[in-house]
Fold this protein.
Amino acid sequence: MDWFTLSRPPFHSVGLLPFFLGTFLAWRLENVFRFDIFVLGSFAVMLIMLSTYHAGEYFDIREDTISKSIYPSRFAGGSGVMPTGRVSGKVPFRTSIAAFLAAGLIGLALQFYYETGPYTLVLGAMGALPGFFYSTRPVRLVETGFGECFIGFCYGWLPVAAAFYIQAAYLHPIINWLSVPIAASIFNVILVNEFPDYEGDRESRKRNLLVRFGKSRGKLIYFGMTFLSWIGFFLSMEAGVPSRALYLYVPVALASIAALSLLAHNTQYNRKLMEITCGLTIVVNLGTTASYILAYW
């Protein structure tokens, strides 16, 4: 059970659903779908996320321990397994490396055996390397002030583009448009989850975006990315996404407005409301991707 919790399976959905969207687009736009490639690609995505999460559990143990003691949250402070000592020492780091290498082997198989295209490994590396080095020292992208941007790219444009590419062997321009609201909304997922972690991150000198800018400016960034996601969604329809996507997006927009309202009223000082805000932000991200899938159905 500890290993299941450590791997944070619910959080794999934010990477897998955009990958499903890219696969679905290849089928709808190009009438191409290879089940074996889809399965292998999905496993590679899961392994990359597993590598990312396990490296984070190992390298963020100090701040996660502080965060869980000050502000317990199901959305922040890691899985909570490592501070308990139920999983020993360097094991998550070793499993992170193993998952990274396994994903690389799948990438080699896809490019050279299944002949999915010359940029297959490049696209895979664009996700695997930032994921692994997001928390891993000495690089630690999370502390550069741009870590959240890397997440937006790796969970926004990249899985949609990679899934489409390994099926169709090229990139359709519509991917660039519909990935904007997905990237902006996952950026907000990471940012809002930093609010419960704020004290622990600041005390351990983990200089992520929220620690650098503070909570007041962090809220403004959240608002700005929300507006970007709304604008991006409308622009994607102008670029060719079926107009029915707008009706499907209405519940997502309402959830987004609710999250904005809660954060604007200083929910970070109320643990229950902060949990709701974090949950709504994830719903917005998943709902945005689901709106596109259903619009193309």
